[in-house]
């Protein structure tokens, strides 16, 4: 039996809200059916972490990514000294259409070497395994592809430490033509090793333990909901996403336009990901969590609320 974590205290929520005002990850988006534009709206007062791309001729999207060391409130009473992309865990959600070029301006503002490595297909000269020294900058130029959702992370050794400290994020590559309009949610699972013993003490969707237990994700009855799930947990080799009272289509990695299976749980190894599509046909609260129950009990439990 999975027991939800205790409600978060007001002092933690106040601190979290102050942190959110400095920019955090917004996880819910709505694709407009007439213009195909993406509009980003706040979910429970969390501001968008997606950097608005600077559009230029030739289908180029430009992003600025800084590595920043910063203490973060990751759960009630728990401060984690994180290594971050742009001050938050996860880092910004980048987005492009297949074939577009992404130009990422990378600045290492910390006292340690770091790098930026993308999963997916790209020029090997921009693979991102080379450490960038403290105080130095570089550019990564990649052509977006294949379609799907692809994690990015620091690839500087020891890689597990750099990811576990918070240097992780995701890139959504939309196919052309695009997928059908949907309510879209990004859920990145990560863990925090608070004790420095190489094991996770907390597990989080989008960087904050227990956040979606306190602030459920609201959707409309009957609308298509598209969930981008990424497993970025270090030290635990396997995780999963289980949704109560519903089944969903699974597009593993998101590279295919037809579903690979229809189920209520998807299991993911480290850095594996999937796109899930579901319609909630009845009003109510729908629990989601990893079926590794200790992960749910340590913060990775949340709810969808269909209204």
Task: Give a short overview.
The protein is mainly beta and 307 residues long. Helices cover 8% and strands 42% of the residues.
The geometry reads as globular
Strand coverage percent: 35-45%
Q: Fraction of residues in helices? A: under 10%
Average of the residue pLDDT scores = 84
End-to-end distance, in Å? 26 Å
The CATH topology of the largest domain, please? Answer: Immunoglobulin-like
Q: Can you tell me the number of structural domains?
A: 2
Count of alpha/pi helices: 4
Largest sheet: 8 strands, mixed
Low-confidence stretches: 1-54
Order of helices and strands: HEEEEEEEEEHEEEHEEEEEEEEHE
Structural class: mainly beta
CATH superfamily of the largest domain: Cupredoxins -  blue copper proteins
- Name of the CATH class of the largest domain: Mainly Beta
CATH architecture of the largest domain: Sandwich
Number of strands: 21
Write the layout of secondary structure elements.
Blueprint: H1 10-20, E1 28-31, E2 38-40, E3 60-75, E4 78-85, E5 93-97, E6 101-108, E7 117-118, E8 137-143, E9 148-153, H2 159-164, E10 168-174, E11 183-192, E12 202-205, H3 211-214, E13 217-219, E14 224-231, E15 238-243, E16 248-252, E17 261-263, E18 265-269, E19 273-279, E20 284-289, H4 293-297, E21 302-306
Parallel strand pairs: 3-6, 5-10, 11-14, 13-21
Antiparallel strand pairs: 1-2, 1-11, 3-4, 6-8, 7-9, 9-10, 11-12, 14-19, 15-18, 15-20, 16-17, 16-19, 20-21
